[in-house]
Each structure stands twice: as C-alpha cells, then as structure tokens.
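User: Fold this one for me? It's Deoxyribose-phosphate aldolase.
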Amino acid sequence: MLKHLHLFSPLSLLFIVSACQPPDQAQELVKEAIEAHGGAAYNNKRIEFDFRTYHLALEHQDGQFSYQRTYRDSTGNRLVETLTNNGFVRTLNGKRQTLDSAQTRRYSQAVNSVAYFVLLPAKLSDPAVLADYVGESQIDGQPYHKVRVRFRAEGGGTDYQDTFFYWFNQQTHTMDYLAYSEGGPRFRKAINPQVVGGIRFQDYINYKGENNDTTSVGTYDRRYQARQLTELSRIEQKNIRVVPLP
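Assistant: Here's what I get for Deoxyribose-phosphate aldolase.
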C-alpha cells in the first residue's frame, strides 16, 4: 500500500484525463471535494483519533506538519513515532532510538499511511498536485466523476509509480470511493461519515481483488457493482477530536 512521505518530498499527484475534457476539470472536482469535506476547517488544527491499537495526532500550521503515532508494544513499552517536515523520530519509553534507513522508511510510511487517508481529499491540494479527468461512473445508483492519480518522478517520493483512482459524487461532491494497486489491489467504500470540528471524517469498507489480477483498479467500480470484490477489513477512526492550534 502506498504511503508517500513528506519526509522525502511533498506529495505530488498526476491525474490523467481523457482528451475531450477541459484540462482543469479534475482540479475543479478536487477543489469541490475539499470544500465538501471541510475546506478551510483543515487549516491550523490538531486532529486526534484512535486507529486500532494506535493513537494519532495530526497537526498542520503555516506550512508545517507533524504526524505522531503513540502505542505500546506487546511488553508494555511506550513507543512514540513522529514525522515532520524535518524528518522522522522514534522513541522507546522516552529515549530516542537509532534507526537505519530501512527502519526509518518502514515506520515513517506506517505513520504517513494512516494520516494520508484520514486527510483525504485535503491531501490532494498539495502544491505539486496535477489533476486530470477520466470519465463518469455509476456506483450504487449514484453518478460519479472518476479521476486517475499517478505521481511525477520529480517530487513524487520513492513510490511515485503508484496509481490511484478516486470517485467524486456528482451531487454532493464528496469522495465516496477510492482504489489503489500497491500492496495488493484495493477498493474502499466510505461509510459512517461524521463531521467533527467542521471536517468530514469517513470510515471505509476495504475490499480486495486477486493479487495476481492484472486488471486496472480503475475498473474496480464495475467489479464492485458486479459483487466481484471480497471485503478484507474495516478502516475506522474512533474518538476523533479537532482542536484549533494557537
């Protein structure tokens, strides 16, 4: 599964469009979706929530960010992992650990992964984003705009070849479905929307395709409609709090 690290570069996305569509179609869809999910409410906030056995705190203020994950291991040790503009730090019972590059990448990806999905679609407003449109779709009787997302090699992080698809509801402008192929083909359906501090948060039903299936995840809306995808897990955020930063 993707997780592009601020640690290495800003997130940059490339959306591919059908030639008949105006070049700014996807950018407008992204802007509308961000507004529908909270818009300016994302700015200068601390977002806290529980995800499985982890507690996360996400902050954005004046171009600076901090993503922190806190949990205890099987022996009761307290681990705090913090990803910021300046890099990644992991502490064990308050003592900073020395990590090699592989460990830094693995742990920071894990933190960034959760933050990325929780902050969608706001993450699509990062400065390096290029958005293009691919067409319309019908899912569960609702009309959607579909956007394919890829990454530029320059500024796209170590996983710039990742591919995503997003489905934006034509009536509500919300981001109701997404799909990606890295780490195994996945299709996510948004459920249980709730607004906290002016921000729309969503849980997801996480569906999977076959690992050896070479079909583009861009077709997973049709696969979902045909009941050809298997539910893998539920992605849920609990005890959400949104606090303004000073």
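One thing worth pointing out: The CA atoms of residues 66 and 229 lie 35 Å apart.
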